[in-house]
Amino acid sequence: MNLDRAVMAFAGIVVLASAILSVTIHPYWIGLTMFAGLNMLQASFTGFCPAAMIFRAVGVKQGCAFD
How far apart are CA 19 and CA 35, in angstroms? Predict the structure, then answer.
């Protein structure tokens, strides 16, 4: 798995988990979904992605999106 796929998979897990938590635990968990969406949006404009930095630090091989 390369860095691009790892970041997308992580974002998907966060969105799905927060959606499930907002339905089963408390509606305020939808804020985590909003945070993930805003983070993906700002990363598309700026290229800065904290998740990519963390995955890179643990040794996930480089993809083409987060150079």
Answer: 12
pTM above 0.70, yes or no: yes
Q: Are 22 and 29 in contact (CB under 8 A)?
A: yes
User: What's 10-66 look like in SS3?
Assistant: HHHHHHHHHHHHHHHCCHHHHHHHHHHHHHHHHHHHHCCCHHHHHHHHCCCECCCCC
Q: How far apart are CA 62 and CA 67, in angstroms?
A: 8
Rounded mean pLDDT, 15-42: 96
